[in-house]
Structure formats: structure tokens, C-alpha cells
Amino acid sequence: MAWAFDSWVGTFYPPKTKSTDYLPYYATQFPAVEIDSTFYAIPRESVVQGWDEKTPDGFMLCPKFPQLITHTKRLQDAAVETEAFLTTMRLLGPKLGPLVLQFDYKFQVDQLPQLTAYLDSLPKDLRYAVEVRHRSWLKEPFYIALGRRNVALVMSDLYYMPRTVVRTANFAYIRLLGDQRQIPGDMGELVQDRSEDLAWWRDRILDLREQHTDIFAFRNNKYEGHSPTTAHRLAGLLADKVAPPTEI
Prior knowledge:
By secondary structure, this protein is an alpha/beta fold. It has a single domain (about 5-175, about 215-220), classed as TIM Barrel. The chain has nine helices and seven strands, in the order H-E-H-E-H-H-E-H-E-H-E-E-H-E-H-H. The strands form two sheets. It has a five-stranded parallel β-sheet with strand order 3-4-5-6-7. A two-stranded parallel ribbon has the order 1-2. It starts with about 20 loop residues before the first helix and ends in an 8-residue tail after the last helix.
């Protein structure tokens, strides 16, 4: 879901591609990218401006909220950090996609009031998605709370969580996550064939398309070992199910 992998040179990036050219090339192959680096720290403005300059019009970048907000502060007393993060991300202009609040398994449904209060404090002109990693959240009150705020539930494929496809916003956000116990990181090639899982997600994406929903679907290297290959495989499955245009 990121782009800065040296091991992709020769397998995804053309041979001898420089790291400064990774993102421009990535943007020729895919319409959007999720930004993991913002999870660790708010980037400098010059870095964000560089992302903008290196990508074409219409490309979308989807940053994660910093872990200082989601994990350390648990959404409490985080107004200053939130404003700094959103102000910096707004430099992307129309390329700014949904912003992702990713929580860990310790963040459980008893903290729904904190979550809704925080969501209510956010600017309404931006799009947000919430990823939870504890089963206690997967109930109707949580879905209703997100739906009232047009916040997307991140539909994830994570080995210890049930697959949950619930549309709570006017867009959908999917994350195909692997198991680090089986695939510790980028392997530079496909090492696990998850064709059946990808076919399942293809069908869900086609169902979401029927609802005229914008869909953001990302995957990490731990899903099959090499996320660009996974992305191309899923795109191929979707293309096979799309009827060709009628000739006039």
C-alpha cells in the first residue's frame, strides 16, 4: 500500500529506477495509493508538495492519521495534532483521498463515545475511514454511528477478523492485509496464492459498484508477498467480469 520498496526494482519498477522516481512510476500504474508514512509522523510540507508534484491530475493519495492520535492519545486531547495533520494533508488539494483512522485490537467498542466525539470534531469537507481490529466493534450501533457521519468502515481482510462488508458512507474503503507470521514483509514476488480470496473480493467490489459507490481498494505485501502483483491480479479479475461496451 506504499511505494518505497527497493525490492520492487526489476519486479515492478523498471531496472535501475531511482527511489525518487518510484512514486511517479507507481502513479502510471495505479490510480491511488495509501500513505503509511503519515502513521509514524506528520511529514514536512515540502514532502507533501513533492507527492503532489510527482503525480498526475486525478491521482489520489490516502494518508493514515498519525499513531500519536490513534494509538498514543486514543483521540483524547489531540486537537493540536489533528489540526497540524489535516492542514498539512490539505496541501494535496484535489488529490487528497479519504483519511484513515487505523486502530489496534486494544481499541474496543466501549470507546465508541470517544470515537464519535472525535469524528464530530473533524472538518466535514474531508472524507474519513475507520479501521478497527477488535470484534466487539462489528455490531449495528457502530455501523449506524459511522453511517450518520458518512464515515466509511474499512472493510479489511485480516486473518483474525471476520470479513465485514458494510457500506456506511458514499464511498467504500477496502484493505487486503496479510498475516505477518506467514509473510514477514515484501518478498519481491508472489509467494502465496490467494486466488479464491481475491475472487471473493472481486464479487464484493462488483456489488458495491452496483450501488454507484467510489471504491478505494488497497493491499499490502503480506497478502500474497508482493502487493503490485496482487493489485494487478485483482484488476484482472474485475476486468473479466465487466461486460464490453456495446457497439453502435
